C-alpha cells in the first residue's frame, strides 16, 4: 500500500466498522499498524503465523481486502484457515471476493491451503466453491460459536 492510499483505507475501515465486521474496531491507524506488524511476525495472536494483507481497489476506492497466513498448524487447519477476506459493504454481490480469492490462488499460494467460512455464510461458501474449493468437512467452533465449513484450495 502506498501512503497516498491512506485516505481510501480510512474510508474502507470506517465502512467495515459501521457494518459491524468484528475484525474492524478502534481506529484505522492502529489497525493498519497491527497488520503491518503481523506481516513481520510481531504481536501475533497465539497460534497465528505471519500474514500478508492485500487490498482490492476499484479506481481509488478500496472494495475489499484479503489476508493470507503463511504457515500452518492445528488452529489454522481447523479453525481460521489460511485465508480470510471481506468485501466493502457497498461492493458486496459484485464479484469482488471471488476476484480477490482467485488472484490469491493464482499469485500468492504455492501449496494447498485451508479456507473456512461460517456454515450460514452462503455468499462466502459460493465464493470458495466458485474458486475451486474442495469441501473437506463441517466442524463446530467454540470461538465462532457455530459451525464452520472447511475447504481446501489448490494452486494451479
Strand order across the largest sheet: 1-2-3
As residue ranges, the low-confidence spans are: none
Q: SSE order, as H and E? A: HHEEHEHEHEE
Overall, the morphology is globular
Q: Report on the biggest sheet.
A: 3 strands, antiparallel
The whole-angstrom Rg is 15 Å
The helix/strand class is: alpha+beta
The level of helicity is 25-40%
Average pLDDT reading: 92
Q: Can you count the beta strands? A: 6
Per DSSP, what share of the residues sits in E-state strands of 2 or more residues?
A: 25-35%
How far apart the termini lie comes to: 27 Å
Count of helical regions:
5
Keywords:
156 residues; 3-stranded antiparallel sheet; 5 helices
Task: Tell me briefly what this model is.
The protein is built from five helices and six strands.
Verbal overview:
The chain has 156 residues and is of the alpha+beta class. Helices cover 34% and strands 28% of the residues. The protein has five helices and six strands, in the order ααββαβαβαββ. The strands form two sheets. The protein has a three-stranded antiparallel sheet, with helices on both faces. A three-stranded antiparallel sheet has the order 4-6-5, sandwiched between helices. A hairpin with a 2-residue loop joins strand 1 and strand 2. The longest helix is centred in the first third of the chain and has 13 residues, at 6-18. The mean pLDDT is 92.
